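Notebook, bench 3.
Goal today: get a predicted structure for Zinc-binding dehydrogenase from Amycolatopsis acididurans so we can plan the truncation constructs. The sequence was checked against the plasmid map this morning, with no discrepancies at the termini. Length recorded as 324 residues. Pasting the sequence as submitted so the record is complete.
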Amino acid sequence: MRAIVLREFGPAGNLRPEEIPGPVDEPGWVRINLRASALNWHDVLVRQGRYGSPLPHVPGADGAGVRADTGDEVLIVPSLWWGEDESFPARGWEILGDHRPGTYAEAVRVPAECVLPKPRGYNWAQAAALPLVGLTTFRALFARARLRAGESLLVLGAGGGVATMAVTLAAGIGATVVVTSSSERKIEQARELGARDGVLYTEPGWPRAAKAIVSGGFDVVLDSVGTWQDSLDALKPGGRLVVLGASRAEQAPLDVRRFYFGQYSLLGTTMGSPRDFAGLLALLAEHAIAPPVIDRSFPLDEAAAAHEYLEQGGGFGKVVLDHQ
């Protein structure tokens, strides 16, 4: 089968198309003939060697396609072996494409419990783009932060997959959403998805400007970049800071006294469990929420170009690979 193979960690150009053997059948596992896969920043870290993937390796966590045994149209939940405790993943938990062959291929093998029907009305690109960002965002906003209708949410960033998913999910349930960005164009695009407004984080004092939009501060801040002090500056007393990334900073000094006098909650989160994904699907069924935003599609063989585009940071929404 055709696949994108990484034989050496490093730049995007190390992702090259090759012909490799297809997945081997095994009880309890399902072969999916993929129609599309989606890129995540996590894939970039895999490519760079941050997760110690075995080489040679086929990356990719997200995908959608057809079950080889039944012909059903499905998507893949890339959260493998989460375990029974919903508060924290089990020791053996991993993300598809970390240590096992992933979705940058014509076919992939996954545990049967990680295969679910493709949502009605979704095309292949939208279905492939939903799982990782949908699951990650649902867990962050609803399983961890307990966001409710009528509350306010600040999303740091406006253009990435998690950010656009957060805007659509939160606005879809009736929360007030504000975003940050370095681009007025992305703020306008976020408004079109349901955000009330946005602020430029390149401007001094942007947390104050963001708080003014919602008259006093946010109930929840979703921080995928690691700028905790700015995030706390935007919260109202008693607010919840949800952290799921460190793309801009990996160290975050805090004013400890201010933190505890403010009665803030600091919540770490990752991609969630299959049960979280069931909650996501129920939420999508209950509310009129649009499918994931697709920024750009590349042919499978152009995965390297897709990674380069993703790393430039200029897009709005998800980058996908077309396998057809």
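DSSP finds ten helices and 17 strands in the chain. The chain has a mean pLDDT of 95.
Flagging this for group meeting.
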